[in-house]
Amino acid sequence: MPREAEPSQNEKDFILKAVREGHRLDGRALDEFRQLDLKFGDQYGVADVTLGKTRIIAKVTAEVTVPYTDRPFDGIFTITTELSPMASPAFEVNRPTETEVLLSRLLEKTVRRSNALDTESLCLVAGQKCWSIRVDLHVLSHDGNLIDASCLAVVAALRHFRKPDTSMEGDTLTVYTPAEREPVPLSWLHSPFCITFSFFGSISVGEDGEEKDIWLLDTTLLEEQLRVSSCTISMNKHGEICQVAKPGGAPVEAVTVVQCSSLALQKVKDLSDFVDQKLAEDSKHRNKGGLLAELSAENAR
Amino acid sequence: MATQTDKVYVLPGDEIDSALIPSHPKHPLRLGPGLRHVPPSDLFPTTAGQLVTDRRKNLIWVESNGGRYIPAVGDLVIGTIHHGAADFFYVTLSDYTSNATLPQLAFEMASKKNRPQLHSGNLVYARVSLANRHMDPELECVSPSTGKAEGLGPLSEGMLYSISLGMARRLLMRKSAEEGKVVVLDELGAAGLAFETAVGRNGKMWVNSKDIKTVLVVGRAVTETDEKSLTVEQQKKLVRRLIKEMA
Amino acid sequence: MPLDTSTYNLALLRVDGRRWNELRQQKGQLGVQPSADGSAYLEMGNTKIQCIISGPNERDLSKSTSSASTAPTSNGAGATVAVSIMIAPFATVDRKRRGRNDKRLQEMQTTIASGLAATVQGQSYGPRSTIHISLNVLSQDGSLLACLINAASLALVDAGVPMTDYLVACTAGSTSSYAAADEEADPLLDLNTQEEQELPFLTLATLGATDKVVAMVCESRVQLTRLEGMMATAADGCKGVRDFLDGVVRDKGELMVQEGAIGRGEVVSSMDLD
């Protein structure tokens, strides 16, 4: 079957030469992100992230189910990723590519294993009823840096999500509709973000010929096809690493990895502020003339 | 080429006003891309776009900015060598389409003993010599009548940019400034940049220059003009901005 | 709090009696499977791996649908490295079967394949050949990824595949949990299962004796300030592992000379490379 055309030798040589001199095709600095945009849907828990030409939608749903027998006090939290042929003809339905496996593993490690969502709070009746939170991630357009954008979408969607309020009276569990009681947010512990560094070999700097690794942030698809290796660092704004993955590829100096990790912290703080700001804007927009606005008006008096 | 003042846009299946169809005493009517002839005498557009006619040569076609390149005889294209075989190079023209074949002898001065050494990943500027719906297209890098390359052949160094098919056609128009409304390249040249380009009808543009920054500026100017469909004035403004940034 | 750290603070000894910078007992053997093109057996503590290499042979398209992960060497101009991991059902304390499409295993396979692709000089074989590496986990007690990488490196040497250096890996942990920000925390080298479950740790794969990082995987929450110490410890561990693997290879070479499998002159020329 015909496949995606690989970048030609001319493109490879040129991009490498340009990157070594500190230029990128779209005129960005080496550590600069593309235009990032985050929109929330009308419903709770829908986040639409656009990063340059990459576009990702995450949707959160919740339902009441029976918890796993080996974890009776925990709710269920799953993240599913779908790279459909819509994003790129390279992806096929029901046949996960390596990109997809690595992406879903990274999200799993970054968001789920780092306990960003308190799964114990999802338990309703121990061993019998719990919330099952499911994040569906759809990649609508693939132009590189899926990992960082996906992680941002998942975190933003989960923080935006509201699950129906519940109450226990004796043995009866009541789940309220949004009309009866305002839905409640998830118990969220920290917001991890992924930063992916793409390496492009090394150049010698200074007179002693010291080797310095060159890396880019937020690579486009073309740049991603040409990189020699990559390293994804997930962190929250408190400087806690949630996950580091450099899956093979060409070697880089250990010092570079350490430098990258401290730079990642700065970037994570920026992203964290960005999401906070967007969430605040959204809740302000939603409460315009709403119940909360009325309440606050009364309190002011 | 088209010389109409008010533009006519058609949708697939639209009826074409018979007054718009050129009639010529001598030449037969020739249909270009995007039109289908239903015998005996009906003419339907198959793509959405601008209806263009040439009354002098008795031509009619639909100009559209479609996403996928379909080879047609005589098109100039930029391809990437996929692999070489005994007599042919297999050349990729666009993603997810089968390769075009380029005979190893279809180069200027090529003979059995002296043929071009091309490896996978190299770029070639070629002309489509054979295009059938059910066959892989065939390319040539030499004019069959004169035996001269006429600018075709391997492209070394430089950078390849992807542009929309419509943009590629506009750039390839004989008077791209007046008819295609693209002035970026002229403006960049007028600003004192030295560079060379080659445009492939399959939505590719190759840019080369001694200076990396020049290549980057030219590439950005053209892709931005393409993506944001800039007007002539905006193009001039863009070029001024890019030149300023570069300095 | 974790029992490991609580006892560690008293005597600075870990649960299995090691100090912070000690590797576990290692055993290695080359050529354990005579019918294979290359094979090795490696023990690091109670983690026991057998690695079998077949190839390089021509790429079999029917096999491309199997669960192995592949990575091309030398920018696609060389042989492809295909890695598949099988964990024996009796490898862990609780006996369980894993599905073929375990994403964690697939991720490990990818890491190993593209890690080895960085050191294997595949251009001598051409782009249509594949080196199949199958890794069998016989017993699992921590540092699994690191052991798999080391075992694969050793087996590649036995198979005679040209490499620039050994790809060696080691784990390092930190005695502080992520919540505690105490500065007294010590890094720990080469963790076993019990320590892995309690402490934040990372796996680092370096190219032989250099500090060049080929692969790095950290799956637990840890303070950024801990990273450097853990990486330095792991890098030291990698050097130790490299010396050990080198020793195994040289012993095997000497044995072959004694048995007369290869002439002395050949050995001198081929073994005195460094």
UniProtKB/TrEMBL annotation, chain A:
It comes from the Eukaryota. It is found in: Cytoplasm; Nucleus. Residues 32-164, 192-266 form the Exoribonuclease phosphorolytic domain. Keywords: Cytoplasm, Nucleus, RNA-binding. Its main location: cytoplasm. The keyword Transferase does not apply. The keyword Cytoplasm applies. PANTHER family: EXOSOME COMPLEX COMPONENT RRP45, EXOSOME COMPLEX EXONUCLEASE RIBOSOMAL RNA PROCESSING PROTEIN. Belongs to the RNase PH family. This is Uncharacterized protein. The lineage of its organism: Eukaryota, Fungi, Dikarya, Ascomycota, Pezizomycotina.
Automatic annotation (TrEMBL), chain B:
It comes from Apiospora rasikravindrae. It is found in: Cytoplasm; Nucleus, Nucleolus. Residues 158-212 form the K Homology domain. The keyword Signal does not apply. Belongs to the RRP40 family. Keywords: Cytoplasm, Exosome, Nucleus, RNA-binding, rRNA processing. Residues 29-68 form the Exosome complex exonuclease Rrp40 N-terminal domain. Pfam families: KH_6, Rrp40_N, RRP40_S1. SUPFAM superfamilies: Eukaryotic type KH-domain (KH-domain type I) (SSF54791), Nucleic acid-binding proteins (SSF50249). This is Ribosomal RNA-processing protein 40. It comes from the Eukaryota.
UniProtKB/TrEMBL annotation, chain C:
InterPro entries: ExoRNase_PH_dom1, ExoRNase_PH_dom2, ExoRNase_PH_dom2_sf, PNPase/RNase_PH_dom_sf, Ribosomal_Su5_D2-typ_SF, RNase_PH. Residues 22-162, 182-236 form the Exoribonuclease phosphorolytic domain. It comes from the Eukaryota. Belongs to the RNase PH family. This is Uncharacterized protein.
